[in-house]
Amino acid sequence: MASRPTSDPTRTFRGSIDATRASLSGRGSGRPHPLLSMERPSHPDYEVHKRTLHQELLDSLDFEEVGNVPKEKLRVRLQNDLTERLERRTLPLNRLERDRMVQEILDNVLGLGPLEPLLADPAVSDILVNGPHQVYVDRGGKLTLTNTRFDDNRHLMQIIDRIVVAVGRRVDEQHPMVDARMADGSRINAIIPPLALDGPVLSIRRFSKKPLTAADLTDRGSVPHPLMLVLKGTVQVGLNTLISGGTGSGKTTLLNVLSGFIPEDERIITIEDSAELRLQQPHVVRLETRPPNLEGRGEVTQRDLVRNSLRMRPDRIILGEVRGTESIDMLTAMNTGHEGSLATIHANNTRDALARLETMVGMGMPNMRTQAIRETVVRAIDLLIQQTRFPDGSRRITSITEVVGLEGETLLTQDIFVFEQTGVDERGKVRGVFRATGVRPHFADRLATHGIHLSDRLFSFRMEV
Ligand SMILES: Nc1ncnc2c1ncn2[C@@H]1O[C@H](COP(=O)(O)OP(=O)(O)OP(=O)(O)O)[C@@H](O)[C@H]1O
Ligand SMILES: [Mg+2]
């Protein structure tokens, strides 16, 4: 991006803004953002006055001097300054409009502009900016259009720029796509014109301060309690487990919960593209891939990390998401004594999950026969858990499936528990039934040898939600 003139409103205070810029989730604990409850101003000249005042404030500031003022102090100081400047003018604006103008300028100068009110709302999990005039948020799985607006493409680019610069990345014509993780774990993706046709697009997935727990998942009907107990057992005894699901279906959340069942005396190595897992055990080594630098060098892939982790004496390897040729090393690890490894995969059902896994292995080992690939898969994977996101925003486990073996070239699996949707109630909530299929899994014996006995009643389990 071209260097900016000093009077450019994008100028901010390094020291004071860094913490904010690097964190997209650490807010919302205190008061609600004042702009959340305010109507958009109707006065036709509001924006013009705002811009003038904004510029006037910037022109009056000594950036060197204020750069060292603590953020809260600076905020109060600028707020007073702006209020006074506004008082001195005779503008046709009411009290609320004046308050709003001060707040908007402060947000632009000290933070991430129009995104601030959304970031202050803890219920917002995703913020999706499609060009300057269309901003959606995801609250509890439901997308809604907000009345948040950026002035124009340039304004939006300034905010995107602030976010990516905070994590040492850049976005410009040469690098029109960035994918980055903020210091607090939130993930952002930005893609700009000419690739994005209607203006810069910014997608923010916030890292929730408190990840969902096993109890949260059972309480909200995502996983019935008895099924959670079964899964706890399968993790404790070390079944190799693959969680599959579509985008945003809750794979990582479930992986985090299941990882919580790993006994405390085991050495766990986690491998992720962007570290999201938050394990509570004392003995966890966290690894994260690295994208290539601006010259295209220095990339460290998941495959590199899986291979390296095998030399680190892991008891368990947890792979955030299998997406490429690291699947080969992962399966090899699972087949060679690293039992109880866990991973997620992007797929809409268990059949597709296995097919995708096969394809990924095939891409890395083009000479390997399908039969051999399937044998490896069958020997490695014990359990498949399908996670699904429903139209009402709810997420559930929709099947727990055992990988049984191979018959000829066919992979045999059997569902142990399934969720079937029966309808939608008058409030739009999905209704359905969790039920056992009646099949007693082979892994029941394995659990029994560890003292975990699954009662027969479990295999006639049925629960309506
Ligand atoms: N069982 C659940 N009930 C309600 N909300 C959930 C549930 N599981 C996850 N969520 C929420 O859904 C969102 C997506 O969850 P998560 O990141 O686990 O999904 P994912 O499948 O890993 O997504 P991605 O495809 O982006 O990797 C998060 O905001 C999370 O808090
Ligand atoms: Mg995920």
Task: Give a short synopsis of this structure.
By secondary structure, the protein is an alpha/beta fold. It has helices spanning 14-21, 46-60, 63-66, 71-87, 95-110, 116-119, 153-166, 214-219, 225-237, 251-259, 302-309, 326-335, 350-364, 370-380, 443-449; strands spanning 124-130, 135-139, 142-145, 177-181, 187-191, 201-205, 241-245, 268-272, 284-288, 316-322, 342-346, 383-389, 395-407, 410-424, 430-436, 462-464. It has two domains: 14-205, Beta-Lactamase; 214-464, P-loop containing nucleotide triphosphate hydrolases (Rossmann fold).
Low-confidence stretches: 1-11, 13-21
Helix content: 25-40%
Number of helices: 15
Return the domain count: 2
Broad CATH class of the largest domain: Alpha Beta
Question: Pairing-aware structural class of the strands and helices?
Answer: alpha/beta
The CATH superfamily of the largest domain turns out to be P-loop containing nucleotide triphosphate hydrolases
Strand order in the largest sheet: 9-8-10-11-7-12-13-14-15-16
Query: What average pLDDT do the residues reach?
Result: 89
**Which distinct ligands sit in these coordinates?**
adenosine-5'-triphosphate, magnesium ion
The first-to-last residue Cα distance is 53 Å
Shape, principal axes of CA atoms: elongated
Q: Tell me how many strands there are.
A: 16
- Sheet with the most strands? 10 strands, mixed
Which architecture of the largest domain would the CATH scheme give at its second level?
3-Layer(aba) Sandwich
Radius of gyration: 26 Å
Instruction: Write the CATH fold name of the largest domain.
Output: Rossmann fold
Portion in strands: 15-25%
